[in-house]
Amino acid sequence: MFKNLLLRDLRLAYYSSSNFIYIGSFFILVTILIPFVINTETEGLKSVFQGLIWVGLALALLLALDRIFSSDFDDGNLDIILRMEVSYEKIYLSKLLSVWITYCLPIVIIVPLISTAFNLTINETIFVTINLFCGSFGMAATAIGINALLMGLKRMIYLKSIIVIPLYIPFMIFGVEQGSWPVLSALSMIAVVVASFATSYGLRLYGE
Amino acid sequence: MDYLLAENLSCIRGSNTVFKNLSFKVSRGQILHITGANGSGKTSLLRMIAGFIYPSEGKIIPEKNYTHKDVHFVGQKYALKKNLSVEKNLSLWSYLYQKKINTDQILSDLDLTQYKDNDIEVLSDGQKRRLSIARLFIHSAPIWLLDEVHVHLDSEWQVKLDHYIYNYINEGGIVLISSNTKIELNSNIDINLTNYNV
Prior knowledge:
Oligomer: heterodimer
Largest sheet of chain A: none
Radius of gyration of chain A: 17 Å
Number of helices of chain B: 6
Distance between the termini of chain A: 25 Å
Number of strands of chain B: 8
Structural class of chain A: mainly alpha
């Protein structure tokens, strides 16, 4: 059942505008847009890029905020999902994987491809990508947990963003430092566990 | 599941007591028709039986956490993604119900074959309702919980839906149906929730 739920979410992402091409294009545009407005030299561009990828990831996940649970809540599909023979924790895990694959994986793949344009060495690119891989799970989990708690609030993406963005700050602070993947992994693990409780609680409250 | 028994059910939403001391028993092959004024708790009662809301007082027997193997809840929402085509919506349901869906057969039964590739948002409310009813035939469950399912259907499809319900009852199913308007269905038990409002 877990597999079906995951495949259904991925199929839904494929059908709608949240597929690989859209997320990838969005991320590339965000990263190439900022250097146009910030007058910076080649060396500066490198450090700007290392910060930009985290802003790009955060923006991509903020775009997802109104889709995770909320669209199923609005159209009634959540009624079907919650009557499936699957625990809240498995629903959360399938959402985590589908959100990560849909919104984070394209960015993790694209970053090494475009990093040479920002003058990053191979070593730096590897560090950046590993950091991104380790931190992105926690950021996706945070988005899911907050959305599960606030799914009843319609068109409140600004409120959700105001709550989510401060929670992303630790990921961004450690994300720009090379070799901080153990800290990012620890942050992600904490976020994944806390978000699982938040999601279960949010889904339990759903009927009430 | 041979019967569904509710004993002294109460529903409190916020500081409001929606209904109190509601008891009934529905056995296999019976239809329970729930009526009542707006806000009398028809949807809340069905959602309570579906397991979405916990009773504030009383209990529902058999006591268990329902899964979609036990109940089929068709609510007022269509469970359709409005920016996706009819066919794609059916394919998404096939994952949730873990069933391979014969799309052409279902659309032909529902008279919606010509809309197969159309987005849901171009369908009328009646057509969306017909499509949402298709969920009842995708897989079987011993209890159908139908919340205002006749709304938006034309008279021909209201009769067809009643026919589906009678067939299901004759096969030993249990149906709880809520309606705010008069429906032609001959029910075995009628409950007017307005009588249980506080």
